Amino acid sequence: MSPNAQLTSFGERVQGKNRTCTAADLPLSGPCDAVIDPRGVYVHVPFCAHKCHYCDFYSFVDARNRQPAFVERLIEEIQAAAAYLRGPLETIFFGGGTPTLLTVDLWEDLLEVLADHLPPRADGEFTVEANPETVTEPLLEVLVGAGVNRISIGAQSFRPTLLETLQRRHDPANVQRTVRLVVQAGVSNINIDLIFGIPGSTLADWLADLDEALSLEPTHLSCYGLMYEPNTPLTAKLRAGRIQRVDQDLEAAMYEATIDRLAAAGFEHYEISNWARPGYRCRHNMLYWTNQQWWPLGPSAAGHVAGIRWKNVARLSDYLRVQPLPPITNVERLDDDGRVGEELMLGLRLIEGIPLDRLDELLTDGRRGPVRAAAIDRHVSEGLLQRDDGSLRLTRCGLLLADIVLADLL
Ligand code: SF4
Question: pTM higher than 0.70, yes or no?
Fold first, then answer.
């Protein structure tokens, strides 16, 4: 049986009635001879105070307070996963959802177990995503005491009307308050998430948002164009004609203005949607973009270990039910050609692109090498890709059409 056939059967079993598949069933090594070496873990916390209208992450408002049961279960998962991982970890990333919605007591329990079983490296990066309304001094004290050294704040916009359109229920003034608290707690590595292209926004609105974010002196900015995900209230409103997409040219102007404004402010544009002060690239996200290994924890968390990608089951009740490792789904091991496509697609998201010698290897390795080489030549001649400084990368024009270029190389 080929590995892929084997994995297909894993996938079927996940959905089957007779047996639930967990990461323990995958052809990974461990628990004792832990030869696998993921450099990071991603932990998904599924609770939010309110569901924003554009969001398709697995998160929900928990009226029944299932936080204690979730943390108890997550602790078991951490303990079980530790048997497979060689620590300490280079990166830990708590995302969601709203991790900072967990109570301080539960964070203390969680961080104690994490320190015992999956500790961060002394020089590691330990990020927690935070929503402005939920950050308090006692919580920060506990987080920083456990080694959290990077906070990622979901601001999205500083314009109340635009936040209203997204149904983001925070007061923009709370972003400033949060940054102040985070800095006072001793964390200087701060990311701010922003969204451009919100219906009703102008270029002036976006530039004002960028300036307000810059005035808070973050080390990192993630700036994404608004996505209309299927089955979200925002997309339903769009379909019903209750909101209008911003014009494509305006959205492109916003993106280009971001590149210029942040370059002038001393930020490196290092990934299509991410900018950092020198030395502050997000090391955890770099694991994703450089096709490294990380282990998923929590409902709906996705991971990549030993050439296999999988997702923990999303629904909290399913996640709580199976122990110690949760049920998994979307199990996939790419064949050689798939891996080449993936490396091209991920590598070209980085502004530095792919070194030409590595590109040559990739085009020789994959079954679709000649087709991909022709697509690359075409995009170079169209001015969307360029070969220079020893690498292949997206041009400024190519950054605007990245989805099209990257889809051709998969
Ligand atoms: S706070 Fe973040 S995860 Fe929660 S609903 Fe809003 S966008 Fe989604």
Answer: yes
